[in-house]
Amino acid sequence: MTSKKLVNSVEECANDALAGLVACNPNLQLLEGHRVALRSDLDSLKGQVALLSGGGSGHEPAHAGFIGKGMLTGVIAGSVFASPAVGSILAAIRAVAQAGTVGTLLIVKNYTGDRLNFGFAMEQAKAEGIPVEMVVIGDDSAFTVLKKAGRRGLCGTVLIHKVAGALAEEGVGLEEITKRVNVIAKAMGTLGVSLSSCSVPGSKPTFELAADEVELGLGIHGEAGIQRIKMAPADQIVTLMIDHMTNTSNVSHVSVQSGSSVVLIVNNLGGLSFLELGIIADAAIRILEGRGVMVARALVGTFMSALEMSGVSLTLMLVDKPLLKLIDAETTATAWPHMAKVFVTGRKRIRAAPTEPPEVTEATAAGGVPPKQTVLVLERVCTTLLGLEEHLNALDRAAGDGDCGITHSRAAKAIQGWLKEGPALASPAQVLSKLSVLLLEKMGGSSGALYGLFLTAAAQPLKEKTDLPAWSAAMDAGMEAMQKYGKAAPGDRTMLDSLWAAAQELQAWKSPGASVLPVLTKAVKSAEAAAKATKNMQAGAGRASYISSAKLDQPDPGAVAVAAIFRAILEVLQTQGA
Q: Would the annotation count 525 as a binding residue?
């Protein structure tokens, strides 16, 4: 079965993609009759060396995203994963030559088709009297033994675009740029790892990986790598990659050692989430710095992809001050990131947390909940929520991201950790205030915010009194805060449904002579009935409100959790004979 792609047609997808980039960027123009993009200010480059690159489509934003002042003059794009046509390459060379440039450097990744087609076009251009040179970039660090075809051209090519572009902008001649780029290109390496293959439009995935497998040392055209390894934490994967890239027994290694300064690229191969990309970047910098390597600059993002491949490549380039100056030079290329022109290593990354105001000591109000009973209640609530984790996740998957149980479990573990510290439980108001802060910090998501709002507001009436009317007022205050900021109302199929049902019963605590357990028992039953009733409600708030009601055939997980919390409180108080 072929993969799904948002294209108009397989045949025209490369043309359409390049046209879309040019349509959105006034600094680019298409060359009529060719799949070529050029700087729109081409005529302003008289007397300057032009830089042309390219290759197969499917590597976006490479290479057209790197067209601009200070980088490439133009790009020739082939079909997906296919070398561009010789005629188009030659047309691009002629176009920049006729604009008045004094020579053209072709920057080509080391693949047979690219070498042949760019080389043939170069020879034809030279025969026409146009000064042209070509540098072939091979930065692949996967192979430990030198292959006849040489190292593949990977994401390090982008750094060559940048360095050559800066030199051309300075007015350096063609011969000198070619010489310097060839030297610089030897001081870098790239290694990729992937969790999945990719698929050319109209085709099936190029290779298959088991659920517990990762492909190491793969290229950017969907070809398999040098080794399949078992899935492991990001730190282990990144360590393996850096070890392989810097191992001196590897013929394609980068000579990085303690004291070296490097530019690091963490490159998304297309389908990796930015969350994963950040984790990998953090691991790479920690591991390099742990070995005494100075990270001069770090580029994190998508620079040279392989369609939708869920993977990442790391590039290391050895740099000194003159080379860093070229990396830092200004460019208008849209795909080049804005970076601080300072070393990554040595920068202070953590700012001290703000000081908290001193806690106000509150006298324990008469009739307050004994500290031992408070601990028992909280422990039972935590045990209950931990036991419900999978059930709540299953309910949440119908209308959300399936993490309701995880967030409630996170809250329970945070409370358990706090209780182990043996906190002073001086008053109910202080306990609720502390719990609100704890859940806001540790629980996360909208649930953490809603519980935090409820507990913060509920604590206020309990500062003066802790009798039954005060506890009923605390419920009212908490519900009012949740409705004010959460925008939910009873009947909207949220946790508020269970809370509201319980609160209605707890109004009885405001009557003279009311007792704890009979009223609380009714409140728990009402909360449980309300939670069950959410199964038949149409969601009016929260993420579930975006889902068709026909698909919501389970109770709301937040309402179920609230009812379970009330049940846990009741069971402890019944045991204690409250």
A: no
Give 33's strand partners. Answer: none
Q: Is residue 516 domain-shared with residue 420, that is, in the same domain?
A: yes
433 marked ligand binding residue: no
4: β partners: none
Point out which residues pair with 29 in neighbouring strands: 38
Would you place residue 367 in the very low, low, confident or very high pLDDT band (cuts 50, 70, 90)?
very low
Residue 109 assigned as binding residue = yes
Gap between the Cα atoms of 481 and 464, Å rounded? 19
Q: How far apart are CA 289 and CA 360, in angstroms?
A: 44
Asked if residue 317 has pLDDT above 50, the reply is: yes
487 is in an annotated binding site: no
In this prediction, residue 398 carries a pLDDT of: 73
484 Cβ neighbours under 8 A, 6+ residues apart: none
Q: Which residue type, as a one-letter code, is found at position 370?
A: P
> Total structural domains in the chain?
2
The three-state secondary structure class of 101 is: coil
Structure tokens at 272: 């990796």
Q: Comparing C-alpha atoms, which of 306, 310, 238 is closest to residue 274?
A: 310
Is 306 in the same domain as 407?
Answer: no
**Residues annotated catalytic, as ranges:** 221
pLDDT of 366 = 41
CATH of residue 132: 3.40.50.10440
Q: Which CATH number belongs to the domain containing residue 525 in this structure?
A: 1.25.40.340
Rg (CA), the chain: 32
Q: Domain range holding 298?
A: 12-201+208-328
Indicate the residue type of 578: A
216, 210 contact by CB (below 8 A): no
Q: Which of 15-24, 205-214, 248-257, 547-556 has the lowest mean pLDDT?
A: 547-556
Cβ-contact 483, 496 below 8 angstroms: yes
Instruction: For residue range 370-416, list pLDDT tens digits in order.
Output: 588 899 999 999 999 999 999 999 998 876 678 899 999 999 999 99
Global pTM reads 0.77
Q: What is the mean pLDDT of the chain?
A: 92
Q: Is 545 exposed, middle or buried (0-12, 13-18, 19+ CB in 10 A)?
A: middle
Give per-residue pLDDT as tens, 299-308. Answer: 999 999 999 9
Q: Is 143 domain-assigned?
A: yes
Report the run of H or E that residue 104 belongs to, with start and end. Answer: strand 104-109
Q: Could you give the CA distance from residue 205 to residue 270 in angstroms, rounded to a whole number?
A: 14
Conformational region of residue 55, where left means phi above 0, alpha means psi within -120 to 50, and beta covers everything else: left
Axis-axis angle for helices 156-169, 321-328 (nearest 10): 90
